[in-house]
Amino acid sequence: MENQFENRAVLVTGAGTGMGRAVALALASEGASVTLWGRRKTPLEAVAKEIQEAGGSALLQVCDISKPDEIAANLKASIAHFGKLDAVFANAGHLGEFKPLRDTQADDFADLIQTNLIGTQQTVAQCLSHMKNGVVLINASWTAGAVMPGSGAYAATKAALLAMMRVLAVEEGPRGNRINAISPGIILTPMADEVLDPEISARLSNHTPLRRNGRPEDVTGTAMWLLSGNSGFVTGQDVVVDGGFTLGGALR
Asked: Which InterPro entries has this protein been placed in (predicted)?
């Protein structure tokens, strides 16, 4: 449905690259006024330019979600600019260093917890204080429910996000706010490239029933549905988008 986000203001965190970028572009193409958050200005400028050149509306804000004061200041400016906030795609996250859990130190958890868990919680909480009948979509991960050796610390933060999402759905339901999550599988983003060399990427592709790894655009349709009124009776749910990777079936 074209322009299903007309007159809606949507915040996308981690909007400069990967899934955040793909969803931000799709939202703008369907009429949304999009606020773009990220830690690096240059990628955000490229996304904002692409949206504006296509006739869309975008506001870029350099924001590190690990810093609650930055969240508050940028959110205030965004709402002042667009006049409201209708939805948020809480997409920003950090992979950290992949290593066995027996070798993982307390400090290895610190940045992951501060960004993936606390940063997302603070983003969502502060947004919800400005929303009624709004929508929150949290980007979790397939690793929260399946196993990739070495991802233990990262997966722990994503599993915590799913628990938080379900509690929020119950707490916020009476205000009309819907809270859901999406758990992408192997999606070839710049962040994924940090840990996936070509050999590993090929092995993962071969294990997937659809015989390929995902692209950011493969997540867009599901994210757009969950952010839109078309999923108006869906809340507290985690939707896995992984090409069947976590089915665990025998290879053929």
From this structure: KR_dom, NAD(P)-bd_dom_sf, Sc_DH/Rdtase_CS, SDR_fam
Q: Which residue has the tokens 């290593």?
A: 99
Q: What is the pLDDT of residue 30?
A: 96
- How far is 177 from 136, CA to CA, in rounded Å? 8
Tell me whether residue 34 is exposed, middle or buried, using C-beta atoms within 10 angstroms of its C-beta: 0 to 12, 13 to 18, 19 or more: buried
d(CA 238, CA 171): 17
**Distance from C-alpha of 78 to C-alpha of 154, rounded to nearest angstrom:** 30
Q: Name the nearest CA neighbour of 115 among 207, 13, 185, 33.
A: 13
Q: What is the structure's pLDDT at 84?
A: 98
pLDDT tens digits, 63-89: 999 999 999 999 999 999 999 999 999
Q: Which residues pair with 187 in a beta bridge?
A: 214
Q: Where are the domains of the chain?
A: 9-240
CA angle, corner 119, sides to 114 and 122, nearest 5? 130
122: closest CA among 57, 209, 174, 64?
Answer: 64
pLDDT tens per residue, range 4-45: 899 999 999 999 999 999 999 999 999 999 999 999 999 999
Tokens 């758990």, residue located: 183
For 92, 94, 99, 135, 163, the CA distances from 195, given in Å and listed in that order, are: 17, 12, 11, 32, 26
Question: Please, what is the average pLDDT of the chain?
Answer: 92
Nearest to 37 by CA among 57, 8, 10: 10
pTM recorded for the entire structure: 0.93
CATH number assigned to the domain covering 9-240: 3.40.50.720
Given a contact cutoff of 8 angstroms between Cβ atoms, the answer to whether 42 and 116 are in contact is no
